Amino acid sequence: MTLDVAWAVDWTRRTAEQVAARRVELTELDRQIGDGDHGENLARGFSAVIARLDALEDAPAEVGDVLKLVATTLMSTVGGAAGPLYGTAYLRSAKVTGVDALDSRAVVAMLEAGLEGVVARGKASPGEKTMVDAWTPAVEAAVAAADSGADPAAVLAAAADAAEAGAVATIPLVATKGRASYLGERSAGHADPGATSTALVLRAAADAAGAERAGPEGAGRNRAPSDNARHDGA
Q1: Of 96, 97, 101, which Cα lies nearest the Cα of 2?
Q2: Is the model's pTM score more than 0.85?
Q3: Kind and range of the H or E run holding 3
Q4: Which GO CC terms are listed, alphabetically (predicted)?
Q5: For the chain, what is the largest distance between any 2 Cα atoms, rounded to a whole number of angstroms?
Q6: In this predicted model, what pLDDT tens digit does every residue of 180-209 receive, in sequence order?
Q7: In degrees rounded to 5, what are phi and psi of residue 101?
Q8: Which of 14, 45, 66, 129 could form an S-S bond across to 8 if both were Cys, CB 3.0 to 4.6 Å?
Q9: CA distance to 116, 118, 120, per residue, from 123 (Å)
Q10: How far is Cα 139 from Cα 156, in angstroms, rounded to an integer?
Q11: Structural domain boundaries of the chain?
Q12: Using one digit for the tens of pLDDT, what is the confidence trace for 17-72?
């Protein structure tokens, strides 16, 4: 199997839904060790992303077109660190997904590019209690899955599992990067909000891939924006 533009659109919509559903949780996590605006900012950003998707007259031609739209929208609408970090991750990923469908190796390349973008923008390393602590194990798991011959859906499922474990593993860490680092030892005992939202984003990608693998019954959400507009207006 491969993952096409419809998958990328579905991933984006699922991410927006999950960010909105967990907005309060993400905001509370950030309130404990940061500015307290992570959930609100991401929810606002992905709401704007969906508005832009719905306003498109023509469906995106390539996976990278969808990711670039997400990147530019988040950069222009999300404040704090989240906008630049996620925006750069999506933009780097868009540059390596200028195709109409992704195989397992292309999924790995997409995730690797996203991690490179986060590291380049945030200057963080694993163990510093940041979103890198979710991204890094996700990429490592994706590489291992692809090397074992897994299809793209399984690669993303492995990445999502590892990201979730990585987010949980930030709880005992003492932050040494970002605003949370100001708290010193008091930052321990709380999950990093960026790592938590990273796990959410990658789980949405895996869920969308699972739906695509399931075929028409499981992928009924995978509508191009123009189809969605026609359906809503019917």
Answers
A1: 101
A2: yes
A3: strand 3-4
A4: cytosol
A5: 56
A6: 877 778 889 999 999 999 999 999 999 999
A7: -160, 150
A8: 66
A9: 10, 8, 6
A10: 9
A11: 3-219
A12: 999 999 999 999 999 988 889 999 999 999 999 999 999 999 999 999 999 999 99
Let me know: does 5 contact 63? Beta carbons within 8 Å: yes
59-96: buried (b, 16+ CB within 10 Å) or exposed (e) per residue? bbebbbbbbbbbbbbbbebbebbbbbbbbbbbbbbbbb
Helix (H, G, I), strand (E, B) or coil at 91: helix
CATH 3.40.30.10, applies to 3-219: no
The SS3 call for residue 80 is coil
What residues does 101 pair with on adjacent strands?
4
Round to whole Å and give the CA distance between 234 and 231.
5
